[in-house]
Each structure stands twice: as C-alpha cells, then as structure tokens.
Amino acid sequence: MENLIEIKKVYKTYKLGSIDNHALNDINLNISKGEILVILGPSGSGKTTLLNVISGLDKISKGQILYENKDISKYRDYRMTKFRKKNLGFIFQTYNLLEHLNVYENVLVGSNLGHNKADINQIIETVGLSRHKKKYMHELSGGEQQRVSIARALAKQPKVMFCDEPTGALDEKTGKIVLESLVKANEKLKTTMVIVTHNPGIAMIGDRVIKMNSGRIIEEIKNKTRMNPKDIPWG
Ligand SMILES: Nc1ncnc2c1ncn2[C@@H]1O[C@H](COP(=O)(O)OP(=O)(O)OP(=O)(O)O)[C@@H](O)[C@H]1O
Ligand SMILES: [Mg+2]
After folding, report:
1. What contacts 171, CB < 8 A, 6 or more positions away?
2. Which class for 142: exposed (0-12), middle (13-18), buried (19 or more C-beta within 10 A)?
3. What is the pLDDT averaged over residues 119-143?
4. Which of 93, 171, 201, 222 could bridge across to 232 with cysteines, CB 3.0–4.6 Å?
5. Residue 29's beta-bridge partner residues?
6. Is 46 left (phi over 0), alpha (psi -120 to 50) or beta?
7. What CATH number corresponds to the domain at position 209?
8. Contact at 8 Å (CB) between 28 and 7?
C-alpha cells in the first residue's frame, strides 16, 4: 500500500520541574493510504498525545511528521489549521454536535468546512442513519449521535480520520454498530482510519495494530484479515 504519513523519531516532552517526561519517546511509524490502523495501550501510555501530534492538534518536541513527503511539523499555526480543515477528520469520545440542527444539517456543516463537495445523503446512508435524517440530537441514542459525528467528519472527504476512543461512551451493541460505520466508510470511501482505544477487541477490525506503553511503540501486529466488528470480543 502507498504511504500517506511518515512519523520519524518523534518526541513529545513535558517538563516536570527539572525532569523531562517523554509522553512520546522515539516514535517511528508509517501509515498507508486506505488502511485501518488501531493504536492500543493502557491509560497514560501516550495514545491521545500521538493522535494529537499526528493530526497537528499539538506540536512535537523533536522529529518529523510527513504527509505525502511534506513536513507538517514545520507548519505555523495558520497553515496547520488550514491543512487540518482541508484534510483531516476527527471523532472523539464525546460527539460535539450542534443541538439546534437536525442530522442532515449537522452533516452539511461538516461538508462546508472542507473544500470538497460530498453527497450528504450517501454519507448518511453509509453510517446507516437515512431513517433519522430529520431528527434532532436529543431524539437520538448515543450510538446514533456518534454516527452523526462520523458522517459530519466524512462529509469533507478527509484524507484521514482520527478517532480517539470512538466507542468509549458506548455499550457493546451500540459500539459495534459505530465501528461497522467506520469500516464501511473505509471500504466505500477509502478513508484512512486511525483508531485509538484501550479495548483490545477493537484491534481485530484493523489491518495493523500498534501497541503503546510509556510513550513508546512496544509492538506492531499485522492482522491477516480484518474481523467484522460484529464478531470481536468486547473489552
Ligand atoms: N499537557 C500535558 N502536560 C503534562 N503532561 C501531559 C500533558 N498531556 C499529557 N501528559 C502526560 O503524557 C502521558 C500520555 O498521556 P495521553 O493522554 O497521551 O495518554 P493516553 O494513552 O491517551 O491515556 P488514556 O487512555 O487515559 O486516554 C501521560 O503520562 C500524561 O500525564
Ligand atoms: Mg487518551
């Protein structure tokens, strides 16, 4: 598969008094176009920090982050914000949706942020919410709201979607439906997915798994096949 992102010798260091605390410690990682990469690790291992620096939400202390050979770690704030808006999608544990807009309108807002014009109805269909298009956020379950946030992020047709504990607030049944939406989006739209989780079962839906501990990548596993989210063990 073709390379999309190269992470080279990346450090993120926080000073604790006079002591250097490495939230990321010599991270080297490539992410391919169209792959589903799962980042797994215990609390405090550096998963969110890694996601935030790959997606330019946070600055690195040392190293390089290249998107198609362009070093974004050198970008200034304004340029970085523009790059993020155009190319990257985000899903968090909480949904951050607009309460006074319905499903269709929330997704439309996502498309207006980017430069690409997407077919809103098709994206809503991809996440399985066609029946709920006119509903407001308080009329939806947690899993449905998370799928709205996925659709909203997909609407600008991002190069990569970064998902930080996308099922963290959901029960098993609902969580699996949300994961199915992510996989379907990857299959239909070829969107590269980076999913952060502490749930080892979720690792099985990906092409590749990175295990983190104390700011380091301690293991990389290539899955022979992707498991259907329906069939994964939970927790
Ligand atoms: N702004 C900050 N200042 C100082 N230390 C920080 C800061 N942000 C994160 N850290 C430290 O960096 C380490 C990694 O944190 P991070 O949030 O990346 O962990 P995580 O793997 O996402 O954990 P969780 O599963 O609990 O979300 C932790 O030790 C944390 O305390
Ligand atoms: Mg985290």
Report:
1. none
2. middle
3. 95
4. 201
5. 7
6. left
7. 3.40.50.300
8. yes
**Is position 20 within any domain?**
no
Residue in 39, 48, 167 to alter for ligand 1 test, most ligand atoms within 8 A of Cβ: 48
Q: What pLDDT was estimated at residue 118?
A: 75
Q: Which residues span the domain enclosing 207?
A: 31-59+75-231
How far lies 185's CA from each of 78, 120, 191, 192, in Å? 29, 13, 7, 9
Does the residue 213 lie in any domain?
Answer: yes
Domain count, the chain: 1
Cβ-based neighbour number of residue 91 at 10 Å: 26
What is the pLDDT confidence band of residue 1, given thresholds at 50, 70 and 90? confident
Q: Are 73 and 6 a contacting pair, CB within 8 Å?
A: no
Q: Ligand 1 centre and the CA of 127: distance in Å? A: 31
Q: Which atom of ligand 1 is nearest to the CA of 46?
A: 18
The residue type found at 85 is K
Pocket of ligand 1 (CB under 6 A): 14, 23, 41, 43-49, 198
- Asked if residue 2 belongs to a domain, the reply is no
User: 146 - beta bridge partners?
Assistant: none
Q: How far is the CA of 156 from the centre of ligand 2 (A)?
A: 25
Nearest bound ligand to the CA of residue 164: 2
Cα separation, 110 vs 1, whole angstroms: 28
pLDDT band at 235 (very low <50, low <70, confident <90, very high): confident
pLDDT digits (tens, 9 = 90+) for 195-228: 999 999 999 999 999 999 999 999 999 999 999 9
